[in-house]
Amino acid sequence: METHFNIQRRLFDYQFSLTQTPAELEQVHQRFIQTYNTTAHEGLVKEGFAPPIPMQVLADAKGRLYSPDELARKFSRAMFPRTTNRYGCVTLHSYHFYIEEGVPHTQVLLWVYGEQLRAVLDHVVLAEYHCRYDWRSHKVAEIRDGFFYPTRFASPQGSLIPLTPQESLVLYRPQPLRRPARRAFSAPQLMLFALVPTG
Q1: pLDDT tens digits, residue range 93-105?
Q2: What pLDDT, in 10s, does the model give residues 25-83?
């Protein structure tokens, strides 16, 4: 089951990467869903459904429709816009990690979904990391095992030694403890000459 959905996700990501505008993206999404729901599935064949087509099996079952504002609210906690540095790295909650050298000083969207953190630019997944996300504190607790996709954004120069998931380096930079500011104690100013009343 998991392999099936990973294959579908890859096909979906690839089709998304070919789009240039939000309107094209929406059209590709609708076509993909229509094809997926009207194509026979091996799992349904094994279960003995006739016909083994999701749309027929589910019949009148409908999901919930959410407005775009409601969807943005539900997913906004797990999306983080970040700008890459000149080496294609970003920082998220004290973690500093590589995305893509070919997109220096570019804003990318970091999207946490389940135990995956994806870096996306123009609907193209550039890199993927395993992560732990604390939904209470809204912070990433761990990032590791990077995977980098070949994309149209890759540096034309290429890398002398390409990074592999085992070689990707994630740096944890703890926030320095803030010490309370020292208060300056002012000593009373002594007079150079003391005037003494005479007389």
Answers
A1: 888 999 988 899 9
A2: 788 888 888 887 777 777 777 888 777 777 777 766 667 777 777 766 666 557 889 99
Locate tokens 């009373």: which residue? 188
First to last CA, the chain: 106
Give the residue extent of every domain in the chain. 1-62, 64-175
Nearest to 103 by CA among 57, 139, 151: 151
Alpha helix ranges (H) inside the chain: 2-17, 22-37, 42-46, 54-58, 68-75
**Ramachandran sector of residue 161 (left: φ over 0; alpha: ψ -120 to 50; beta: rest):** beta
User: What's the whole-model pTM score?
Assistant: 0.50
What is the total residue count of the chain? 199
